[in-house]
Design a protein that fits this description.
Helices cover 56% and strands 16% of the residues. The chain is rod-shaped, with a radius of gyration of 29 Å. Strands 1-2-3 form a three-stranded antiparallel sheet. Helix 1 runs antiparallel to helix 2. The chain has one domain (23-136). It is of the alpha+beta class. The longest helix is centred in the N-terminal third of the chain and has 39 residues, at 3-41.
Length: 140
């Protein structure tokens, strides 16, 4: 066998080995992303109701000129705020329901974060699959 053929064979084997290592790494990353997706999507399996919005406490003046709030002692209460079709809404909350509504509101936010993570993971899956396809493809 001519010496240049040994060099060509060596280069071919090195490229093949590098390609296999890269494929293995990509497959491992794909499996890790799949596990991350499984953990992220568990949020969607919760059964409790959700409420869109944020709960917080506000202090305000009522407008009555003889009220204590005109002297600095503002009225305080909890409200739920949310936006819908580009408009912001605010609703006063009864003190007995604040904890319940806050919990439902936090669950809604948690689901929205999970949805965002799922979108990013799906984009990552597609990128990984494209790379795997490119490494596995042979010339016709």
């Amino acid at each position: 066998m001519p010496p240049c053929l040994h060099v060509i064979l060596f280069i071919y084997m090195q490229n093949k080995l590098q390609r296999e290592r890269e494929l293995s790494r990509l497959r491992q990353e794909l499996l890790e992303s799949l596990e991350q997706l499984r953990q992220t999507i568990e949020v969607a399996f919760a059964r409790g109701p959700l409420i869109k919005g944020s709960v917080y406490r506000i202090a305000h003046r009522c407008g009555n000129p003889h009220c204590r709030c005109t002297h600095g002692q503002l009225h305080r209460n909890f409200v739920l705020t949310w936006s819908e079709q580009g408009r912001h809404h605010m609703r006063s909350l009864p003190p007995k329901r604040v904890a319940e509504i806050r919990k439902k509101s936090k669950e809604y936010a948690r689901l929205r974060r999970a949805r965002s993570e799922v979108t990013a993971l799906c984009n990552r899956f597609l990128a990984l699959l494209d790379q795997i396809q490119e490494l596995r493809r042979e010339a016709p």
